[in-house]
């Protein structure tokens, strides 16, 4: 027996039309090279409707991939809606990719057009000869002075919009499983792999950004997404803001800590989100700005150190809200909320709880399993296992079958590659990436936990722990340490510091000082680079 | 091109397993005839698993209808999950139905079993001979002394559970469009009609009870649903609470204002929900109780008078949160939130805003249209039209095709029968039911607005306005007024009072005093009864 409910597909046109109809008076602000642009949702919606016509005029296929190579701006948001609402597929290209990755991705996705901010054109154009499928480059003039090549494939965004009639009527996408957007994983190994979001997954994920025990986006919010719109759709914030009717402030090209702080203060931002590196860089500026409007600082992309979260709690009066996920999980999979069983915990214990990755979001199912045997592990906060994920916004495979399915279990769950423990209430705590675990004498050492302990030393700015081959123990950890400016510390002092904090057999076999931890294109520690650098390292057997 | 997301159906087993896995330590309290029962979600979940086995043992069909005739209790909540999670269809029977309606509904739905609270057995049992499909009656002993007939069809709930092994493993419903629950509309005209909720609609609606600009259910909440679980699934609160991990307090059979107030205070309830009548009855008790934990008083089922909402704001410090909807809309369609454009409004203007039905919930689309021509009306807060609704939890037809589809438009939207204006920000304001409008001289008079103005008179307890036939104007309004205990007022005094408050041609042609406004089984004004009573009424032509 079937239910007798209307067959209304869960599609992004709902997000667009809801915003247009209910929130036309709300504003979107974009910081530019020369000042700020402010546009009402009503005017923005007309531009989306014009852009829909432009995509037709350019001859983009019915499900053609629409590439973007853009900062966070209201015009990027126009593309976010116009592409999927007309059945095309938004493909956000990461502006920090290495040229060969960029070319690989655009060709692999078969992008038909790339919309590019003028300030980013110099990054894109040198590769243009290698793009095999792109027929048009549409330059969005963001006030930058970058020269525009004389090439028939190049169009001006504003000229195209001015010449286009706004699409009339309601956008309609019949099949909620149709592709809406795609994003390639940065992939520290192998080629980048494409994750293809459906309308259904994008809409459901947007709803999740509204739930009270999560980001709780509201019509009253003013949201500044620092997280780039080419990172898993800026964690769903753009679509979530439109669905909730929140005001949005886009930072544009100037991503310096001072520029972000100024925007937060000027626009009385209530919710902002970005990776830990961004928030670390802003700490020195927090005392000088009135940030009293902020109610939530969303932090994700990599584990949030307790000290960072506590610094914000001390200075802003609001702790960070940590969320965990990845491109393959749309990305929100967990949110580190403070639940009622913690009500009588000390501030310090709550800070520890916030440093965990937290609880599965509604509709998301998670489990931990032995990475080798697949055996499910208990939720006792002691057993570790790879997090596996299931849910309507979790990927089931990569675009064009890349990766051969090895990242998915036989019963269809995503193998995230992240290793965690889970407490009995369901709070997840990352301990490592499966590939970064150090397997010493048959036991696992968590490189991440060791890094956190080293970074607790007051003279240490950053630390990365990698495994090096070892004759007796198979692998042993070594620590690569960046010392804070103006400070100094010796290897022995770090080992002494660790002695009371970790098991003796966890002590690194060596401490190497480096100038900086190499990062991937999305700002994560590139341990691959460190492993290459220290691959031939020889240490004596530890005396453990 | 299709998205590459996991094919995870949106089904109620997710709600069950999420609650079981994450919130096992949370409590459900039920007030009983003799005290209070408290059960952990973990223990409750085992009982749901036993109940799943019981449904098999009783031989209930794979999609058999499972009737309930119960108060709001944790055992009713067991049925809420066990029936749909095993593929059956929960059918909540309204305990306030007249016997012939009850029999009609149970037969029409083809209920195979009815679970009945012992205290309600005397209401049910006299009709048992007329039930054509019910094979089993399972009595839930709630401590009442009602005699249990000696009949082989009767079973004891606890005995069945004790004898059943808990279902092991995960519940699974493959098709999210499968029926999960059904509820019959009270239907002031014609036979009651069945609305059949799907797993998809029930799960999406549950999510909506979690969004910040709505009820915003959270793990920190303690929720007391006063609204009966046989009214459109208690407005989605039971499933929403399980999804959010909120604690629940069920009032059981004692629905007196004092009993409710006592429960609210004792359990530090944060969110409660019910119809205006309930909250009116509680006003005299508010001063005597510590209700400082309450953050939201959800009110719906009929329009919420401004005076009622303001009384709560004054006494509790929190205004009522009005929601509008109906059985056919699952029921949440609008929520009367205070949006940011009202931030600088006066308290009185905000109170007026709260007395409106408010803004469409995410995923719900609403429009107003002329009830006769179907022409869509503008959102200028002046034009009126029947509200039409579309969305994934809006009914597309009634069970077994009842009503012949006349309640649905050609393009598949639900005709709600409610007439409203909409302001330019999308806030809906009910003015009447289509069938209650008074059509005088080609113009509409809103019976509801007229009633509200009459009820503003200090001596008036309740007022109902109905149309009576009129030779010249086709229809004219008359007012049926209930005077407050210990007060007195004349017809002329009421007309004088109205003179400055409504247009002259709106003034009722007569004011009749009655002892009480007749109510339907769900507590709404039964204007049908009044129209029957005053059908032959003759009045002189007004001098307008």
UniProtKB/TrEMBL annotation, chains A, B:
Domain (AMP-binding enzyme C-terminal) ranges: 449-524
UniProt keywords, alphabetically: Fatty acid metabolism, Ligase, Lipid metabolism
Annotated InterPro entries: AMP-bd_C, AMP-bd_C_sf, AMP-binding_CS, AMP-dep_synth/lig_dom, ANL_N_sf
AMP-dependent synthetase/ligase domain segment(s): 31-399
Biological process, per Gene Ontology: fatty acid metabolic process
Molecular function (Gene Ontology), one example: ligase activity
One Pfam family this sequence matches: AMP-binding_C
Protein family according to the UniProt entry: Belongs to the ATP-dependent AMP-binding enzyme family.
PANTHER family registered for this protein in UniProt: ACYL-ACTIVATING ENZYME (PTHR43859), BUTANOATE--COA LIGASE AAE1-RELATED (PTHR43859:SF4)
The protein's name: Fatty-acyl-CoA synthase
Organism (species): Pseudonocardia sediminis
Lineage: Bacteria, Bacillati, Actinomycetota, Actinomycetes, Pseudonocardiales
């Amino acid at each position: 027996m079937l239910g007798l409910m209307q067959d209304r597909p869960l599609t992004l046109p709902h997000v667009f039309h809801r915003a247009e109809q209910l929130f036309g008076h709300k504003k979107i602000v974009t910081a530019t090279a020369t000042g700020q642009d402010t546009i009402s949702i009503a005017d923005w919606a007309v531009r989306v409707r014009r852009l829909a016509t432009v995509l037709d005029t350019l001859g983009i296929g019915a499900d053609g991939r629409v590439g973007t190579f853009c900062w966070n701006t209201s015009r990027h948001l126009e593309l976010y809606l116009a592409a999927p609402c007309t059945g095309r597929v938004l493909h956000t290209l990461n502006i920090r990719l290495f040229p060969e990755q960029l070319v690989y991705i655009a060709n692999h996705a078969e992008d038909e057009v790339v919309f590019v901010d003028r300030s980013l054109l110099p990054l894109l154009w040198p590769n243009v000869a290698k793009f095999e499928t792109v027929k048009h480059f549409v330059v969005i003039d963001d006030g930058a002075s970058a020269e525009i090549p004389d090439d028939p494939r190049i169009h001006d965004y504003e000229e195209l919009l001015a010449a286009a009639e706004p699409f009339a009527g309601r956008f309609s996408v019949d099949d909620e499983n149709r592709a809406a957007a795609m994003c390639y994983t940065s992939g520290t190994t192998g080629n980048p792999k494409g994750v293809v979001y459906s309308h259904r997954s994008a809409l459901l994920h947007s709803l999740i950004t509204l739930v009270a025990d999560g980001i709780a986006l509201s019509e009253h919010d003013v949201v500044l997404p620092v997280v780039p719109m080419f990172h898993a759709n800026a964690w769903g914030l753009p679509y979530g803001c439109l669905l909730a009717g929140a005001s949005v402030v886009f930072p544009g090209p100037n991503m310096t800590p001072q520029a972000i702080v100024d925007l937060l203060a000027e626009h009385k931002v209530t919710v902002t989100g970005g990776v830990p590196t961004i928030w670390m860089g802003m700490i020195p500026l927090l005392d000088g700005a009135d940030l009293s409007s902020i109610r939530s600082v969303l932090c994700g992309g990599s584990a949030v150190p307790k000290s960072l979260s506590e610094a914000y709690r001390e200075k802003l009066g609001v702790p960070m809200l940590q969320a965990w996920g990845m491109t393959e999980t749309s990305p929100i999979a967990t949110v580190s909320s403070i639940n009622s069983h913690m009500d009588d915990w000390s501030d310090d214990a709550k800070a520890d709880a916030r440093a965990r990755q937290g609880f599965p979001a509604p509709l998301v199912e998670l489990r931990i399993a032995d990475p080798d045997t697949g055996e499910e592990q208990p939720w006792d906060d002691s057993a570790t296992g790879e997090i596996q994920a299931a849910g309507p916004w979790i990927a089931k495979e990569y675009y064009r079958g890349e990766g051969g399915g090895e990242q998915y279990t036989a019963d269809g769950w995503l193998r995230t590659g992240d290793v965690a423990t889970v407490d009995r209430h369901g709070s997840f705590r990352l301990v490592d990436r499966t590939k970064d675990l150090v397997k010493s004498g048959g036991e696992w050492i968590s490189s991440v936990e060791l890094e956190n302990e080293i970074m607790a030393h007051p003279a240490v700015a950053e630390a990365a722990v990698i495994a090096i081959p070892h004759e007796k123990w198979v692998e042993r950890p070594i620590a690569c340490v960046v010392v804070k400016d103006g400070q100094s510390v010796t290897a022995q002092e770090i080992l002494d510091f660790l002695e009371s904090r970790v098991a003796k057999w966890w002590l690194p076999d060596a401490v190497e000082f480096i100038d900086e931890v190499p990062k991937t294109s999305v700002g994560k520690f590139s341990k691959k680079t460190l492993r290459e650098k220290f691959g031939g390292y020889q240490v004596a057997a530890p005396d453990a």
